[in-house]
Design goal:
The chain is of the alpha/beta class and 246 residues long. Helix 6 runs parallel beside helix 7. A 9-stranded parallel beta sheet has the order 6-5-4-3-2-1-9-8-7. It has a single domain, classed as Protein of unknown function UPF0759 (TIM Barrel). It starts with a strand and ends with a helix. Helix content is 36%, strand content 16%. The chain contains 9 helices and 9 strands.
Length: 246
């Protein structure tokens, strides 16, 4: 994997992207293939709601070019139902499904619910189950502010897991690096998947990301403000701004 910025969107299958990204006459069964010609990475949110079928994984692999990378959001059974506790069976099942496409893996994202408050022992025990090396990369997105503490960052660093930077609920995540890569999710200026970012905000992120690249850490960025096609336009604009930082 190259030390560069991979900028894409959270998901790709949105009806309201017709005319913004997808040509009006393009059949839906060709949307992903078209997406992969315009972006070099995507964050798959669908895997949070249901486990992917083997044939779906094969399809994504076959329809994406070499160099295209996938981030997968871990199933909610791990993060929201069991809240990281006693999840070994669910975790192994999920990771096993991803093995055929691991050569195109950006990272696996564990998005924790706002109701899950800081628990260092729980986090450490969970992360200890994750495989190390072999192309696996993992990232945790905290939604409760109690997690933002140096002791938690030490746990993440120990396991080589990235702290997800994000702006959900218009929150500001500390500018802390805990892994050999950076991972950013932008949920919209409203904090809830809507609105388009202004150039000043995108320039701020471009400068922040460039610092990671200067330290030889690849960065992954996913826009989740899909309404009205804003994610597409903002991803393109950040890509331009970041190119100007080089």
């Amino acid at each position: 994997m190259q030390t560069r910025a991979y900028i894409g969107t959270s998901g790709f299958y949105y009806e309201h992207w017709r005319g913004v990204l997808y040509p009006e006459d393009l059949p839906k069964n060709r949307w992903f293939e078209y997406f992969a010609t315009r972006f070099d990475t995507v964050e798959m949110n669908s895997t949070f709601y249901h486990l992917p079928k083997a044939k779906t994984i094969t399809h994504w692999d076959e329809k994406s070019p070499e160099g295209f990378l996938f981030a997968f959001k871990a199933h909610r059974g791990i993060t929201h139902y069991k809240k990281l506790a006693d999840t070994r069976e669910e975790l192994l099942r999920f990771l096993h499904l991803l093995k055929p496409i691991k050569h195109k893996l950006a990272a696996v994202l564990f998005q924790l619910p706002p109701s899950l408050h800081r628990n260092d022992e729980l986090l450490g025990d969970f992360l200890a189950q994750l495989p190390h090396g072999g192309g696996w990369r993992f990232v945790v997105e905290f939604r409760h502010e109690s997690w933002y503490d140096e002791a938690v960052y030490v746990i993440l660093r120990h396991h080589g897991v990235a702290l997800c930077w994000h702006d959900y609920g218009r929150k500001s995540v500390p500018d802390v690096s805990t892994a050999e890569f950076a991972y950013l999710r932008l949920h919209g200026p409203s904090g809830h998947y809507r609105g388009s970012y202004d150039d000043a905000t995108l320039q701020h992120w471009a400068e922040r990301l460039q610092k990671e690249l200067n330290h030889n850490r690849p960065v992954f960025v996913y826009f989740n403000n899909d309404m009205e096609g804003n994610a597409v336009r903002d991803a393109r604009r950040l890509r331009e701004l970041l190119a100007n930082e080089e």
